[in-house]
Amino acid sequence: MIYILTALRPEADGLIKQYQLKKVKDKPFEVFSSEKMKLVVSGVGKINAAAATSYILSDSDINYNHEDFFLNFGICGTLKKELTVGEMFLCNKVLDYETKECFFSDILLEYDLEEETIQSIDHLHQKFDFLEALVDMEASSAFKISSKFLNTHQIYVVKIVSDLAYKKNNEKLSKQFVLEIVDKNINKVVDFIDKTVLFLKSYQMLFQKRDSEFIEMLSISLNLTFSQKEQLKNAYCFYKANKGCEPSFLEEFLIIKPKNSKERNAIFDQIKQKLYS
Amino acid sequence: MIKSNKNYIARKFSHIYVEKRAFDYPITQYILNKFSKSKVVAIENYNEIFSRKNQNPYVQKLSPSLILAEKKEGFFYKGSRLCHNFQEENFYYTNFILNCIFECDYCYLKGMNLSSHIVFFVNLEDYFEKINILISEKNKVYLSISYDSDILVFEGIYPFFNKWYNFAKKNQGVTIEIRTKSANWKKFTNYDPISNLELSWSISPEEVINKFEKKTPNLEARLTATSNLLKKNWKINLALDPLIYTGKTWRNTYYEFLKYLVSRINLELINSITVGVFRIPVNYLRRMKRFSDSSVVFFPYETIENVASYPEDIKEEMLNFVVSFLEEYFDSEKIYVI
Ligand code: SF4
After folding, report:
1. pTM assigned to the model
2. B314-330, pLDDT tens digit by residue?
3. Residue nearest to atom 7 of ligand 1 (CA)
4. What ipTM score was computed for the predicted complex, to two decimals?
5. Shortest Cα distance from B291 to chain A (angstroms)?
6. Is B297 helix (H, G, I), strand (E, B) or coil?
């Protein structure tokens, strides 16, 4: 599943259209989704972003979410004079301005995107130092919360410069303007998403959800103890790693019902021996 | 299990994270010049990257980043009980590089470190200073410098060897050991061998290399390196460590390997041989099981005092077999069994 967070609706519209997302929730956050994507509109600020991140990621299966990734997408200000409005960046460092905590995506792929660093602050109206190249109000908290669900190569921040924040004039941006700058970059965002999806799909853990379900089933059926179940899991992984396939012969043990613990232990030893041989 | 389309994987060290304090060191500047296309990101402390809890060290191996940092404390450590100390009382190790670009499935680094990104501590002069103090306190120190890495594989990035060679040459009180699986022997021909610098080559049967020591030079290349350097009078140790149980055929695998070894290398010229079966702190092994897809990680090891290793009968049999073979060709006094 691809999880996307934007702060504002105009930042999301381009993706909603591109991926034909349907609105599935209005409260507490607007959520749009398809079979493979969930997009949440958090509202402005770190607290909103943290809450919305937690809200959409809570249905990610934490033990088997290796194909999932999270993207905080939206607009930001630039604190660097060399950068211009409309340019899009993949953020390779996210600094929380208030706590000074830093977050880093593991960028393992060649993307067709320039990279910059970003600082997330509580209020744009306050006096603040220019510590990084870009500034926004959500990335750090979205990153922090998504880190509880996903690994560092599954969390990204992509931002489009919408204003020259170093001038500190805090102009209000029109909805139309945001739609336009997102629209100009939409192909690159799609390319970024596609590449990441493809990569994560190609990375498969040895022990998958279906393996875990099978072990569970077999353990119940043979009435295995907790320790035997753990040993079975290890032996199952050994077999799979060694032979490159699942031990299909185990299926025939599903219909066996041991009469007592002695019989169970004997069957268990037999299974282990087969898996390790 | 990674079957990625390699075309879009970022090249190794596409990102270099540099501690702000580390920027001024000549090594940092040298490396950044060498990797002018890499993205350089300034950080406060290397642990911001290295010690993040939610990393997948196996995926990171596809495109590791480089971290340049300044070491502040812990310039050397007393040798671990899991490693042999060559009967040296003052056996220490130092780790100015963390992690490795080889991919041995059994390597404890993936269990010990939360990250597979490579760290270079760039203040080598501070290491030398602190180690000098240690030498003056102890008189004689045996120092393993390729401990949490295989440092020779990074020579193309920075000539670390040169620095340590010069240090050893100036300090007779230290004996430096560099353990490696690399095959780059030619670079040593630029140097004269010195008595207080030992090279230890880790060797394994080809079957073990193919299956469990990914991206490492093959046996032939390692033996070529060893024999060429022996001819040039370098002090060479061999490490048949870890011995890996390859199933019922292990005896044959190791017999062929040992036969080949003695046919290729004049063991009389070897300084010492270490033999040990695979062993690992059980908490490292537990972490490796979360990500690994290698059978070596899932073998039913036995745990004694928090160290997982082969059951006693397999361990004894393997050690006896290998050691008795070697004793036919090599002074048993110089065989160290772990
Ligand atoms: S060469 Fe040594 S340090 Fe490198 S991966 Fe293999 S065992 Fe680990």
Report:
1. 0.95
2. 999 999 999 999 999 99
3. B107
4. 0.95
5. 7
6. helix
